[in-house]
Fold these 2 entries.
Entry 1:
Amino acid sequence: MLVHIVMFKFKEENKKANIIQAKQMLENLMGAIPSLRSMDVGVNFVEADRAMDLSIIAVFESKEGLDSYDAHPEHQKVVTFIKSVVEYSKAADYNRE
C-alpha cells in the first residue's frame, strides 16, 4: 500500500470558506476515482506558526494507483481550485508495509 499525505496552508482571503470547499471537493473524490482506496481529510484546529490548515491522508495499492489518481480529471478539478486558494502545500509519500 502507498500512503500519500498532503498538507495545505491557505491564503487569508476567504480562508474558512475555501477550506470548507476544498474539504468537500476532496471528500467527493472517494468513489469517483477507482484507485483511491481511502482518504482522510482534516481541518486543523490548533493555532501555531508551524500549523497547516488542511491535511489529507490518501491510500492507494501502488504507485500506479497514485499516478492514476493524480491524472484523473476529477482530481485535476480539485487541484485547480486548491492551487488558486493556497499559499503553499507540502507532501510526503511512502510505502506502508
Entry 2:
Amino acid sequence: MTLPPVGEPLDENMVFRLVQFAGVTYDVRDPSALLHFRESEGDQREFTIPISVTDAVTIAAAADARAGVRPSTSELLSLVIDGLGADVIAVRFVRVEGSIVFAELDLMSPNGRRIFDCRPSDAVAVALRAPMAPVLVNEAIVEGLRRG
C-alpha cells in the first residue's frame, strides 16, 4: 500500500520534527524492547516506541553498522533500495492508533518518488543503514509517545 505523495499529506496540519535515534533497550523479562529517540531541535524531548526484541536486535546491528553472514530483512531491503538506484529521503512516524505507531518510508528512485507504509522498526533499521536519512516524527504524536 502506498500513501499519498508528500505534496498530498494525510493531514495538512501535520508538522514534523527531526529526531535522533538514541538507542534501543530490552530486558529479557519483558516481551517488548524500546526504541529511544530525542528531538534534534527545540525542547529536545525524548520518547520511546515499543518493538519486539527480535526487531531490537536488528536495529542494534544496523546502528553499529554490523552485517550478518546472511542479510537480515532490513539489510536486504537496504541492498535492494541501493541496487535500484534509489535513496531514502526520510522516515516519518505519522500517527498513533491505540498503541500502534504508523510510519512511512519515503524513497526517491530514477522512476520518481514513492512513499510506503511500514512498521517503525523496519523504517528505523533501513534509515540507520542509509546515509543521511532523517527520521521525522509528527509533532502531534510526540507528547503521546512520551507518556506511553
